[in-house]
Amino acid sequence: MKDDDLEETAVGRAPGKLYVAGEYAVVEPGHRAIVVAVNRFLDVRIHASDFEARQGSLQSNRFTRSRVQWHRSHDTIVVDSADQSGWGFIINAIRVVERFAVEAGKSLRYCDISVSSGLDDASGKKYGLGSSGAVTVATVQALCDFYHLEIGEMERYKLAFLAANEVQPSGSGGDIAAGTFQGCIAYSSPDHEWIAARVGHDAQTETLQRAAPSVGIDRTGLDRRSGEVSGIARLIGMDWPGLSIERLPVPSDMKFLVGWTGAPASTPELVANVQHSVHGGDIPDQGFAAESGDASERVRDTDGKSHDSPALELGDAMETSKERYGRFVRDSDACVTAMADAFRRGDVSAIQTQIRAARRILLSLTDITGTIVETRALNDLVRIAQSHGAAAKSSGAGGGDCGIAIGGPEVDSDAIRADWNACGIEALDLHISTGDE
Question: 260: which DSSP letter?
Fold first, then answer.
């Protein structure tokens, strides 16, 4: 039956992202990064399918392939195509949001989903702005509107995180946070093992319910014996250990520049290389515990206290790579903490100091793991920006893609962009997006 409490069409929009500091360290649960949303966007549009068709469709300008069909089979989303690569984030977004919708008492519908991405250049250049996170965030937003699921930003972040984590469990979720909250975000990642344990428990309960309805959990997610909410609704309503999301004010006199090196890089591959070097390929343990006090989630716009700039310590030759990596994570956290405080104070000079510290800390990671973060082109980008009085570093996993530069009002942005372009580095017309575009 058709549910009157549904939209016929819905749209979702999410920005791209760039890391300012804390890359790699933020992959460890409870550890910190600063990430910004930028003014390139990915749009998702949903239209209700013909009720009798019993199938929906997927289409994206990110792929050359034509529209593909999808349907449900035993509570599983199935794409009717031999080549399902690229659809994983959307499929999991459908699956997670629809589980939540069923718990909320909604009747499921088939729909046609189209994706239009402006994160890459029209010529096909991929800038590394986080299309996977953006498409997940935008799809979750559109589906929540489609099913009239009125939830806040934190709950939408958690739905998108759960969807993306199924496809890319090594991700920190920083791109999800930036896409959902926008602006400049101080972020620390949640405990993946804690989440996985609860997702696994819910999946087991769901399997038992299908086999024996008397177990006591109905399709709305209400435990008939205790009256407590279970399933996705309960999970996204809980505090997630390690998770912290804070919007930071951006100084009005701060100049933010982005250059693209022309060499695309694979973030999952680079992160996997580092994780393998340090953890032997396993999911990170809790050996680098965060020193943030209360580890429960926080969303706030506050002023904080000043922190000293971290001193980079490379460790001695007798340390193991894991011990040196632990030192790297602690140094990175201290840098991000000091940088976040500088943003709160509106102190551009202090932000620049921490940008330089963050670069030195990232360079130490190459010594520890052998992973090349700052390529020759990124080194040129930094050198040119520094020659004009700006502070600069690679952004994200490095190995190519983008670098950023931050300067005060005295910095000549046009001169930096001109010298970048002359050196073969494409200066991108990007600024920090607050969601007003």
Answer: E
Give the CA radius of gyration of the chain.
22
The alpha carbon of residue 271 and the mean position of all alpha carbons in its chain are separated, in whole angstroms, by 14
In this prediction, residue 360 carries a pLDDT of 95
Q: Which residues on adjacent β-strands are paired with residue 17?
A: 37
Other residues' Cβ atoms within 10 Å of the Cβ of residue 73 = 7
Region of 221 on the Ramachandran plot (φ > 0 left; ψ -120 to 50 alpha; else beta): left
Q: Which residues contact 299 (CB under 8 A, 6 or more apart)?
A: 153, 154, 181, 245, 246, 247
Q: 223: which strand partners?
A: 217
Q: Which of 290, 84, 333, 320 is nearest to 190 (CA)?
A: 290
Give the Cα separation of 302 and 59 in Å (integer).
Answer: 42
pLDDT tens digit sequence for 178-212 = 999 999 999 999 999 999 999 875 554 454 344 44
Q: What is the largest CA-CA distance in the chain?
A: 71
- Token pair 């399997």: residue: 207
Query: Across 181-243, where does the E strand assignment appear?
Result: 184-188
Lowest mean pLDDT among 93-97, 151-155, 272-276: 272-276
How open is the CA angle 391-126-66, to the nearest 5 degrees?
Answer: 160
Give the E-state strand segments of 6-165 in sequence order: 9-21, 32-48, 56-60, 68-73, 76-79, 111-117
Instruction: Give the span between the Cα atoms of 194 and 201, in whole angstroms.
Output: 11
**Burial of 229: CB neighbours in 10 Å, binned 0-12, 13-18, 19+:** middle
pTM of the model: 0.84
CB atoms within 10 A of CB 417: 21
